[in-house]
Amino acid sequence: MTNPPAVKHLRVKLFADGADRASMLALYARPEIEGFTTNPTLMAKAGITDYEAFSRDILATIADKPLSLEVFSDDFAEMERQARKIAAWGGNVYVKIPITNTRGESSGPLIKRLAHSGLKLNVTAITTLGQVRQALASLDPAVPAYLSVFAGRIADTGRDPVPMVEESLALARSHPRVEMIWASPRELLNIFHADRAGCHIITVTADILAKLTRVGLDPEGVSLETVKMFYDDAVRAGFTL
Questions:
Q1: What is the pTM of this model?
Q2: Would you say residue 182 lies in a domain?
Q3: Nearest by Cα to 203 from 229, 183, 188, 217
Q4: Would residue 204 count as lying in a domain?
Q5: Which partner from 55, 111, 123, 218 sits 20 to 30 angstroms from 143, CA to CA?
Q6: CA dihedral sign of residues 118, 122, 124, 129
Q7: Which stretch of DSSP H or E encloses residue 18?
Q8: What is the distance of C-alpha 124 from the center of its chain?
Q9: How many whole angstroms separate alpha carbon 209 and alpha carbon 228?
Q10: Which residues in 41-188 belong to E strands, given as ranges?
Q11: CA dihedral 19, 169, 97, 100 (to 10 degrees)
Q12: Rounded to an integer, what distance in angstroms lies between the CA atom of residue 32 and that of residue 225?
């Protein structure tokens, strides 16, 4: 069994993914967290009702690490209006633009207009190499950008996302200001998958980040811990035969 590298030796940057204010601010204080992402789904789950007020409040503290905030319209003209407004909230803001709208229409022309206007973008919901090529063709090579490959959702279809991530990175080499994000991880091990693939960034939810303290634990110790958990839970439940 191969031991994982220590967290401090990882090359991949850890970005916290979430919309809980207290959690975000606590993670901001941790030096290993180098950026933040959120989306409308996470905000809705967190009970946020005022998108702008929440975002500006977070940005008042998180002003020196990248923070990705997503548009939430399905109309490209309205997406553009929202994107320009969001971008104005801070120099560390990356505006998340989905690779298509809900009708499957390409966001390429919008991405091109925004990127060539100097907006830093996070092109999101990418699951195919064709979408990677489309996004790269639309971006301005002089403007920083992220491409979020939803590796976890690809894995949910029974496909190994690593080859696609590696091919995406190869395609992006001609765009030195583009960083590739391993998005929607499903487990702690995905951090090491992303690192080995050469991904620049992985977005990680707080529940997975909490497991970082377990990296490098002795497998036999983990076995014993598990046995004790089973025993303690059986005692607590009062099971008898």
A1: 0.94
A2: yes
A3: 183
A4: yes
A5: 55
A6: positive
A7: none
A8: 9
A9: 24
A10: 67-70, 93-98, 121-126, 145-149, 178-182
A11: -120
A12: 27
